[in-house]
Write a structure and sequence with these properties.
Layout lengths: L2 H24 L2 H15 L10 H19 L23 H11 L1 H8 L3 H13 L3 H7 L4 H16 L9 H17 L2 H7 E9 L10 E4 L1 H9 L2 H5 L1 E6 L2 E6 L7 E8 L2 E8 L2 H5 L3 E2 L4
Helix pairs in contact: 1-2, 1-3, 2-3, 3-6, 6-8, 7-8, 9-10
Length: 292
């Protein structure tokens, strides 16, 4: 077996690990696949004779490719929200259910917070905190010292965990209600949705949600439940997060925040839902990761 064949086999052994790195860096399964493939093209041309920790070296190669992709990515694409209200047909892209399962396995709220970080912060945090890459190896990737890379990871860590605590003693109960709403929306369970909504519930949606010339106001449990039933595509890419200290739902296809649902809950029933999609409003929200 020649060296190139052995390297290709080793790369395939590490492919799932490398995709996991790329997915946490990019938040998109398809982009992660592209990053891994681009990494192989680089690795295939490299001299790895002196590499002692090949998996670690491959991880840093993928990290550098992802860093370049993050730096060139447009900060926020202007895809209409109705793109996520349907299942793509043949040839239109990845399986949305598989993408959603992958996001759930990582934590959608975490992906949302990571998307708010500068590329170098994201790289330092992901490689060190999630994959135990030493800062001495991370620093050169971002043209920083090891100490500077450590500071970037620390800053990112504070951002990820900064909103994770709340003085609200009722947080676990509110979380159960919001999680039940998401589960019923994903499953298309109309009766379960009705059971969670106050009969006089009011839903407010800003003009970017539909979009419409004016903000939308919807009243009544049955009407609100019907709207949730019609948005199962969005629910696939939605997860529970802490938003401005309250339990909420964040929709983030490909790890990029597009919509937030805030809830007012009284005596175990949802009395008000505030749906935010306006980019300026979304940018002003403090998104955090809820403790398990």
């Amino acid at each position: 077996m020649d060296d190139r064949t052995a390297l290709a086999e080793r790369f395939e052994e590490d492919r799932s690990h490398l995709k996991a790195v790329a997915y946490r860096m990019l938040g998109s399964a398809s982009e992660a696949d592209d990053a891994v493939q681009e990494s192989w093209l680089r690795v295939a041309q490299a001299d790895v004779g002196g590499v002692q920790n090949l998996t670690g070296w491959l991880t840093t190669v993928v990290g550098r490719v992802c860093l370049n992709m993050l730096r060139t990515r447009r900060t926020r694409r202007e895809d209409p929200l109705d793109v996520y209200d349907r299942t793509p047909g043949p040839g239109e892209g990845d399986d949305p259910e598989q993408e959603a399962l992958l996001a759930d396995s990582v934590g959608l709220a975490l992906l949302v917070v990571l998307d708010t970080l500068a590329p170098a912060e994201r790289l330092a945090f992901v490689l060190h905190d999630m994959f135990a890459v030493p800062f001495a190896e991370i620093g050169p990737l971002i043209d920083h010292s090891a100490d500077s890379a450590r500071q970037l990871a620390s800053r990112a860590r504070r951002r990820v965990k900064g909103g994770a605590t709340s003085p609200d003693a009722d947080l676990p109960r509110r979380r159960r209600v919001v999680e039940a709403f998401l589960s019923a929306s994903r499953g298309g369970d109309f009766d379960a949705l009705l059971a969670l909504l106050h009969p006089d519930v009011v839903l407010h949606a800003d003009r970017s949600v539909i979009p419409t010339p004016e903000p939308v106001v919807v009243r009544g449990a049955r009407t609100v439940a019907k709207g949730a039933m019609a948005a199962t595509g969005r629910a696939l890419f939605t997860g529970v997060a802490l938003v401005d200290g309250a339990v909420a739902l964040a929709m983030a296809p490909q790890g990029r925040l597009r919509l937030v649902l805030g809830f007012t809950i009284v005596d175990g029933l949802i009395t008000e839902i505030d749906v935010v999609a306006d980019p300026d409003r979304l940018g002003g929200l403090d998104i955090g990761v809820l403790d398990d």
